[in-house]
Write a structure and sequence with these properties.
Length: 131
């Protein structure tokens, strides 16, 4: 079992930056694929970014590439999502997720954006962007 706890959300102004953290407990996440998703009120959950189970290969939704950065700190069992140049439309609850499977390099690009690929989810952290 893996428990995930997100933090770092808050109320910010357009153009600001935030770093979200997802701390895992129960087992090491060093060999787990880790993803970030978000859900805005009245909208479906959408993929933001993920980092592969082995190594540092990252995957991003085209909508966020260049503004958001995912990384992992295996020594502290944490995965991060750096959000830059935030916009009001980035207002959402951001969720961290963990995936136990071992997709190949060839299948990872399709695997990680799929919310069904993940076995564990955190409770989310709210990000509100408003002037």
């Amino acid at each position: 079992q893996v428990q995930l706890l997100e933090s770092g959300g808050g109320f910010v102004q357009p153009g600001d930056s935030l770093t979200l953290s997802c701390v895992a407990s129960g087992r090491s996440i060093s060999d787990l694929g880790m993803g970030w998703f978000r859900q805005a009120p009245g909208k479906e959950r959408e993929f933001v970014a993920a980092i592969r189970w082995n190594g540092g290969i990252t995957y991003y939704s085209e909508s966020f590439k260049g503004r958001f950065t995912v990384s992992r700190g295996n020594s502290n069992n944490t995965v991060y999502l750096r959000l830059r140049n935030l916009r009001p439309e980035d207002t959402a609850t951001y969720y961290c997720a963990a995936d136990r499977s071992r997709p190949t390099y060839q299948t990872s690009a399709a695997h990680y954006p799929d919310a069904m690929s993940y076995d564990y989810w955190g409770q989310g952290t709210q990000v509100t962007v408003s002037s």
